[in-house]
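Researcher: Next sequence.
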Amino acid sequence: MEIRVLKYFLTVANVGNITKAASILHLTQPTLSRQLMDLEGELQQKLFLRGNRKIELTPEGIILKKRAEEIIELIDKAEDELKNNKDEISGNIFIGSGETRAIKSITDVIKNLNTKYKKVKFHIVSGDSEDLQEKLDKGLLDFCILIEPIDLDKYNSINLKEKDRWGLFLRKDDILAKKKNIKLDDLLNLPLIMSRQAIKTTFEKNIFIDWFKGNFEKLNIVGTYNLIYNASIMTEDKIGYAMGLDRLINTLDNSKICFRPLSPKLEVNINIVWKKNQIFSKPAKIFLEELNNKFNKE
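Model: Next structure:
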């Protein structure tokens, strides 16, 4: 399977039309069609459902698209690391991050490095821990900023020395908004929208679930999210009450949403992690040195 053909495949998959894809790739349509047919023959799988004007991916085509994207991304990353001048600090650093205000600590490090190394670029990828860890494990990311609950055993990590506080996002015109904080009894009969990561039961210790003191199964969970902004819109539209971390959603005067912290207080640690035995590019190695200087010497 040639990289060139994988790029052809991805172009067709993204455009959905062989004629348009051929134009983008500067190929004739028969040449591109033949390359795709050869790829299907090599894999012994039908990758496309061909219509008159548009083609769609088969289930096997969808699988190949995901893997091809990862392969091309890894190749681009490797080429970037190898092509950089050995005597010049340049290149890209890829950082995955969950939604947290603690990223401000990381942007301070980025800002400092930008003043020293003008040719180093930073790329931030947002998502929940499951998605980000998959990318980290595959080498698509150099670092990840992860929020508890997480399993740190297979990673090296630095604690960012800042905690995020759990609470409830609700409408300002809700009767519960009169409370200064939210207790367990307040939550038992509410339609709740939960973080997909926070309610995972595969962790050896999940401090979020433990907070409910054995009452977690009694909750009325009407939905889950991996990005709190989307959950806040659901809250605004009265679909449910979103449980999330403070300081991530606008709750100022022009917002319909407010935040009330849990009581007893529930706070979580934030760590930046990387793979054990990771071989870093020169920019990533310097970034790690800056992280150690900032967080391990404070």
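Model: The chain has a mean pLDDT of 90. DSSP finds ten helices and eleven strands in the chain.
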